[in-house]
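User: I'm preparing a small set of examples for a lab meeting where we compare how different chains pack in three dimensions. I only have the primary sequence for this one, and I'd like the structure in token form so I can line it up with the others. Please keep the answer compact; I'll paste it straight into my notes.
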Amino acid sequence: MADTCATFNFGSVVVNPDPTTDGLQTTDEGDVQGLDGAPITGQIDPKGAAAGASGSIVQNKALRGRVIVFTGFVHIGTEITEEGGTPNVGAIRQKTVAVEKAVVAALEALLNTPTALTWTDAEGDSFSIMATYGTEGEGVTFSGPMLNRAYSFTLVTETPTISAV
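Assistant: Understood. Below is the structure token output for the 165-residue chain.
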């Protein structure tokens, strides 16, 4: 199970990097959706019958892949102040745009390519799952004011299995 303290790596996209680094951060409100221990839905019998019943699917229920949703904010970890200690808003905006461009380019480079999503939880246990970026209508989005920029992007997996590394 993933937690918000974990550093997630998907190709060259890093979520929750070192706090002094510019990048994407998750919120402190909960786990990453899809890696939060919630039940994984099963494949539904199109006829609605129990397995083995007349006319039903005979195989056991297969679990679907996961839909993993990252949300949070763009974090500028480098200190940018003007003389007197006030934040340099122009420089913060430039760094925010640079983070956005780097994330979009990195995700687009992985479009429809299964890639390992890896993370290490607060206890030091490492995990991995093969995921793909490129779900229709679920591209990376950035919203809100430049000094409080939010992001969201979705990954999908073919299988629900998370592997310990």
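A couple of notes for your slides: The chain has one domain: 7-41+61-164. The beta strands are 7-10, 13-15, 23-26, 67-75, 115-120, 126-133, 141-143, 150-156, 163-164.

User: Perfect, thanks.
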